């Protein structure tokens, strides 16, 4: 049998690029590694820039080819305290020398419990007192959905159009931001319904539409959904991001979140707040939901929680989690001791270094720089919207090619020639100029996710790079016509 396997595998085509050069030496140049990666890393993974990252320090990432880039992505909202924060790295390193894998179903470990001790006082509601840690945001969303079904004994879940909750099967089932995440994968998790998020695009309305109007429309659709498609008695949970991320960086109006709470209270539906991206100081408060005063039944967090160590958390109230049978939750690496020790240091650093104050100060500078671009008559026709909260900020460019453009008043009103794919072109230009920047959503949106402790100087630098990039892209597009 073994011989047969050996013989048949020897017929498999051999890879043209190997980990060592023909002279037996390890690959060292960027082009060698780039080619190796392109050959051997799945095509299913996209990247915004070629190259090999070698170092991350504070607000900067260094590449093997010598580039040093200002990081306005934070690795998609993760390294909120900057790369390799000394206090966080030290805590992780020390934990590595004590115990790395203190498996959570064998016994408690101290960093897990210390982390809960740190988190309890910063929870957006005192009822949130029962924790489970996992590795990624998607896994935490899976856990939240599973808990909601077990606790309520109901199956259906309502999510938001434009929502992103992850790429695993359940999380993907409630994700409604882009079809790429589930294309070709159906059947998706059954029992999922969605309503439009109160985002003007989703209601074919102009950006200046009052949030009260958007809220009414969305809550109206929720009531309709509960009468026409999923009975409240079959509905386990509503899952929502307080600032929708992959859907375009749109803060939910507080009246909308309060409306969801009322509906949940009336029908015994659980409200799951996905703060994977918006949590842990990103919006200027520990959690974005705080502003609305709304109490989540289940809160999901990840990303900034451990500043780059894989860690996510699901928090609920004991009265609910007591309904779970021991063994129904768990995971080999869940709540890893090194990641928990790092997260304890993150929580301390946020307080000691007055990170939330910095978020609010730098946020004002970012908004005022972006608004000044919008008030420049040469740029105004291209900038449709500037939005966000804290350091979770987006610029949406005008486009006549958005989905449903013929029904979209913003697209219909366009008289200026807008470069195709303008958001990606601007992000690419920023990268050429030494700043990492991401796009988001199915619209022409770039998102700013700088470190929460970014300096005034680096914020000014980032704003300058962005302005120059926008102007250059527009100039180049003009010359192309
Ligand atoms: C709001 C939200 N939920 C869930 C996830 C999934 O997290 P992960 O990529 O860690 O699985 C993300 C990731 O971007 C997210 O932004």
Automatic annotation (TrEMBL):
Keyword Transferase found: yes
Keywords, comma-separated and alphabetical: Aminotransferase, Pyridoxal phosphate, Transferase
UniProt GO MF annotations: identical protein binding; pyridoxal phosphate binding; transaminase activity
One Pfam short name: Aminotran_3
CDD domains from the UniProt entry: OAT_like
Region (Disordered), start-end ranges: 1-29
Keyword Transferase included in the entry's annotation: yes
Similarity comment text for this entry: Belongs to the class-III pyridoxal-phosphate-dependent aminotransferase family.
Protein name: Acetylornithine aminotransferase
Organism field: Tetrapyrgos nigripes
